[in-house]
Amino acid sequence: MSKTILIVDDSAMIRRIVSQLVQQLGHRAIAAENGQVGVETALATEPDMIIMDIEMPVLDGIAATRQLKADQRTTGIPVIFFTSLGSEENIREAKEAGGNGFLNKPICKEELGLAINKILDPDAASP
């Protein structure tokens, strides 16, 4: 079953690549160029899942996720953080903000597919 996945990243190239991967996996991709636009887009479209970069201008991914988790309309939307940072501090902050997972850049289709399935269809993801 096709799901809507919001990709929030300040890099147009990353948004395009991840959107293509999401579509190849059979889902609908929508994109936003920073955390503020990501919050606004999530409130307007209520996606099934969000892939959120951490370091972005205007509003970073941690702050954007905190806003989403504080709003009753978007609190239940799973957020996977997507970054090239991957430090213990980033992972801790991501979890504290309400993140449901963590992916490192660059990403391959298989890794992205596993992460999406684990969040959106946990029964199918387990062996």
TrEMBL record:
This is Response regulator receiver protein. Coiled coil: none annotated. It comes from Desulfurivibrio alkaliphilus (strain DSM 19089 / UNIQEM U267 / AHT2). The keyword Transferase does not apply. PROSITE patterns: RESPONSE_REGULATORY. GO terms for biological process: phosphorelay signal transduction system. Residues 4-120 form the Response regulatory domain. It holds the Pfam family Response_reg. The modification 4-aspartylphosphate is found at D53. It comes from the Bacteria. Keywords: Phosphoprotein.
